[in-house]
From TrEMBL:
Identification of the protein by name: CsbD family protein
Source organism (scientific name): Massilia litorea
Pfam families referenced in this protein's UniProt entry, alphabetically: CsbD
Entries under InterPro entries matching the protein: CsbD, YjbJ_sf
Coiled coil: none
Gene3D superfamilies: YjbJ (1.10.1470.10)
UniProt domain CsbD-like: residue ranges: 4-56
Amino acid sequence: MNKDQVEGKLQDIGGKIQEEAGKLVGNPEQQVKGLKNQVEGKTQEKYGDVKENLKDATN
């Protein structure tokens, strides 16, 4: 597991928490920010997956 995979996963989880908090307090702006963080986190995590696969393929 590399840095991008870990950071991406953490951002995804944080975004889910932020989205749910926005729902609880009725703040659509926070919900949208949470969804945005989830997308960014998943993208970074996938980038980390690609890096890891390339590293494994070259070894």
